[in-house]
Amino acid sequence: MSQLTFTLPDGTVENVAVTTLLNAGYAGRNQEEVASHIAELAELGVPAPTTIPALYPISPYLAQQATTVSVQHGRTSGEAEWALVITDDDVLLTVACDHTDRDLEVHSVAWSKNAAPDVLGSRAWRLSEIADRLDDITLSAWVGQGDGEPSTLIQSGTLADLLAPKYWLDVLRERGLHKAGTVLVSGTISMRHGVDQFADAWKVEMRDPSTGDTLTCSYRTVRMPAPIG
């Protein structure tokens, strides 16, 4: 189980013990966008999904608010996403980066997403307070190589590019998972062509243009020691 802490715009702090973690996949509203993402994955050898959208259960301890992510090799990468966090009496929205093992992904998307954490931001918004302008909120990601900060734009869009939180809240209710401790990560938007996704650092930002408020998460990857045997 993972313990997460979120600070809200009014200064309130919410502590959440994660009991269920779910990653959505192929969750774009625009089917051309979904097809583009599937094509990106196909270039890496990942077979097309049998059901769209998909939903993958992830080990709850992989919901983290980390600044470093340990990786076994150089073919891992993040994905810009949002995350729903259900508390005892509310639903929060925060920014997230789903780090994925691309070598493992060609064998199983579900396995690959259990090989690295979902990194979440430390700040969040109450979903009810931004529900009327969700589609205007921007979602962007930057990558960096070596010791450099993430400064190369790799993903850019808005929440209108993805299935709405309401869609997934209905799915959670249908499955009996709309309860405190559930975290659902949204699925991602397409990456820019020509940008190396196998980066050493990632930063994801959600921005509310009506207030200028931003939620961010960022981390660096750290290579594990070589195995013995």
From TrEMBL:
GO molecular function ontology, one term from the record: catalytic activity
Highest taxon above the source species: Bacteria
Protein name (database record): DUF2848 domain-containing protein
